[in-house]
Amino acid sequence: MAPAAPMGRGGSRAAPAAAAPPWHVLPDEVWEHAFSFLPADSDRGAAAAACRSWLRAERRSRRRLAVANCYAASPQDAVDRFPAVRAVEVKGKPHFADFGLVPPAWGAAAAPWVAAAADGWPLLEEISFKRMVVTDDCLEMIAASFRNFQVLRLVSCEGFSTAGLAAIAAGCRNLRELDLQENEIEDCSIHWLSLFPESFTSLVTLNFSCLEGDVNITVLERLVTRCHNLKTLKLNNAIPLDKLANLLRKAPQIVELGTGRFSADYHPDLFSKLEAAFAGCKSLRRLSGAWDAVPEYLPAFYCVCDGLTSLNLSYTTVRGPELIKFISRCKKLQLLWVMDLIEDRGLAVVASSCNKLQELRVFPSAPFDAAEQVSLTERGLVDVSASCPMLESVLYFCRRMTNEALITIAKNRPNFTCFRLCIIEPHTPDYTTHQPLDAGFSAIVESCKGLRRLSVSGLLTDIVFKSIGAHADRLEMLSIAFAGNSDLGLHYILSGCKSLKKLEIRDCPFGDKPLLANAAKLETMRSLWMSTCSLTLGACRQLARKMPRLSVEVMNDPRRRCPLDSLTDESPVETLYVYRTIAGPRFDTPACVQIV
Amino acid sequence: MSPPLEPHDYIGLSAAAAPPTPTSSSSSSSSPAPRLTLRLGLPGSESPDRDRDCCEDVAAALSLGPLPAAPKAAAASAGVSAKRAFPDPAQRPGAAAKASDDKQQASPAAPPAAKAQVVGWPPVRNYRKNTLAASASKSKAPAEEAASGGGGPMYVKVSMDGAPYLRKVDIKMYSSYEDLSMALEKMFSCFITGQSGLHKSSSKDRLTNGSKVDALKDQEYVLTYEDKDADWMLVGDLPWDYFTSICRKLKIMRRSDAVGIAPRTIEQTGEIGAALSFLSH
Hints:
The structure holds 2 protein chains of 2 kinds.
Chain A: H1 28-35, H2 41-48, H3 52-61, E1 64-67, H4 75-81, E2 87-91, H5 111-120, E3 126-130, H6 136-145, E4 151-155, E5 158-161, H7 162-171, E6 177-181, E7 184-186, E8 205-207, H8 217-226, E9 232-234, H9 241-250, E10 256-258, H10 268-279, E11 286-288, H11 302-305, E12 310-312, H12 320-328, E13 335-339, H13 343-353, E14 359-363, H14 378-387, E15 393-398, H15 403-412, E16 418-423, H16 438-447, E17 453-455, H17 462-471, E18 477-481, H18 487-495, E19 502-506, H19 512-517, H20 519-523, E20 527-536, H21 537-546, E21 550-555, E22 572-580, E23 593-595
Parallel strand pairs in A: 1-2, 2-3, 3-4, 4-6, 5-7, 6-8, 8-9, 9-10, 10-11, 11-12, 12-13, 13-14, 14-15, 15-16, 16-17, 17-18, 18-19, 19-20
Antiparallel strand pairs in A: 20-22, 21-22, 21-23
Helix pairs in contact in A: 1-3, 2-3, 4-5, 5-6, 6-7, 8-9, 9-10, 12-13, 13-14, 14-15, 15-16, 16-17, 17-18
Chain B: H1 55-60, H2 74-83, H3 126-146, E1 155-160, E2 167-170, H4 177-187, H5 203-208, H6 211-218, E3 221-226, E4 232-234, H7 240-246, E5 249-254, H8 270-280
Parallel strand pairs in B: 1-5
Antiparallel strand pairs in B: 1-2, 3-4, 3-5
Helix pairs in contact in B: 3-7
Subcellular location (chain B): Nucleus
Protein name (chain B): Auxin-responsive protein
Function (chain B): Aux/IAA proteins are short-lived transcriptional factors that function as repressors of early auxin response genes at low auxin concentrations.
């Protein structure tokens, strides 16, 4: 019989000869090889669900594992199911932890994961932790447990110090990447950089931009010199400008650079030194850092502008003409992160110069100061969306918006995959018509059929949620704040949005009814966050009873215990965090969090 | 499929509906169904009904979002109010039931300056907030210096051990630690028995040699400052511009008294390093 097995993209068809074995008895190695061509974990998961032999083959050959919620499964579950993992990524706290809405000591400890990995995955090469509590002990255990450890990536983590970094430097002989992004790292004044041995040359990525405190520049220079494969170097704020020039001369092969402190009084000879150093960096494609950049030095970068594909100036407080001149020279830019100091006129220049732009993020320079106004409005976003045909991801902080602008943007750019608009003042309506922005956001979801991530803001009623529920079929993550006017809003979302995985809501008038009516939906999602809504404890209890495979966490004031038993069903719930899990309730909650 | 949800006034907004008995949002059938309006007030609070179109006022008022229906437990309501970090004195943390006269809604006439911040809004990451705050204070200082000594003067008290009175200096008048120490020397010369200049350093010196260490050893006095966290630190670690923005007070301590504030080695710099060395001796 001629097998026409769906073996995944790139899998080969077995020869259509009568002598060939039926496809379902082919040895595991064949399936493992076939599955290696499946690009997405979800595809592998789907294959594993087909039959037992595929399950066996798939799980045994899985090399990369991403655990999007550290409490969805226990570390031991993960190790048992996928014994051959070489790279693991684990994410902990909910997204709103970034904005201070999650109580301290909420959880997300990395230690159980490191311990289980040390035991079950001795060949582990890569670890990524995001929004987790990583201690120095964890880092020491990592350094001691995996003889071929190569990549450590910590994003938005906390709980460790330079002592932990010292353990990594000293212990990981084959380290290729040390990538520290936006972590809170305690500075114990330990010279961790010096602990990379002289024989150590394998570093490809070194990012310590979030480290406060000094590093020994001489040691850094020696490290950079001997690591000939160094491609990414992101310095922290303690590295002054003249040292940057020296480092660049020692690593002209770098592809990605995060500059250190870029402010200094203008000296022509320092400028020439920098310019010459940059001229030598022919492979430089991605640039970030430039804190406190002094405009007079920006032209030193001009020689690399032609090749730049990624520019992160979101910590640069340079304004006006110098900034615009600089960006306009970067014609190949695909990613631009910038402060709203660029203003509409700057974005108009970006629109005309940077046609290859795929991702734009505009951050607020003075988010808490209503008096300090920059001239960044809906105009800038309209211009960019009109002129950049490949634009698909936007994060935009502004103070005013109109429905008409959003409708225009939607028409121009149906290819958005990520659209996050934050109008800084809650409940802000269309400033010309004073209407809610329902029509604008509805246009976005109707037009952008591939939209995967959406954040809405401004004055919004239930109407917009009806549109989102009905049209946003591919939407995976939705963030809502200060929007809606009744339970209907939430009901529309939960009963629609076929692909919804993460829903986070704050300060909306959504109550118990839609939550209970759509309880089953929650099991198809990764997580739901609702804070400062209209929920009661009774509904949470009911939800927990109805859906045993959901973990229903209730959080109230962090300074108080959460004595749930004494509270009645009518008690309001300040924060609800619900997620599906196969691991049962966790036991590491602080006093202000309780699992219902 | 559950029965269709009707839009209902979840908060019980009409002035008449001030239910002393707790109502959950699901049992809305008893409450009247007024026109839907965006309101921030508590059930029964007496602010005028707003047209949904006049949302400018709502926007101007502090938006905390709607509050849940009247709770019974004091702890829960205290939890709700305390969490918001809302300085409005009208917020009564001990309130049990939200009585009809409890006005928590910010009045529309309140000027924007009186607006308190909502926790976690706008959604700017803590890391970004902290980084921008640090660079803002750093950049404001040199910017003000550059504007020909403009921006207001920054007077800080200077005390000296053993001196009968304090002095005040405008630290913005000086452009480096050297300048400051010379000026202080002159100011306090009547009390000092001839010593070499106080602390001077630059980042280069700190990194490349230990001359700073030697200088301190020779002196009879050390210059310390109190920063915004009310910690006493040794002067000289930070870049000058940043120092001027965070220095609150200066103190010239006798070397023998400054045992806790020991000279640092080259690598130990930065506030955290200084604080730790302060404690470890």
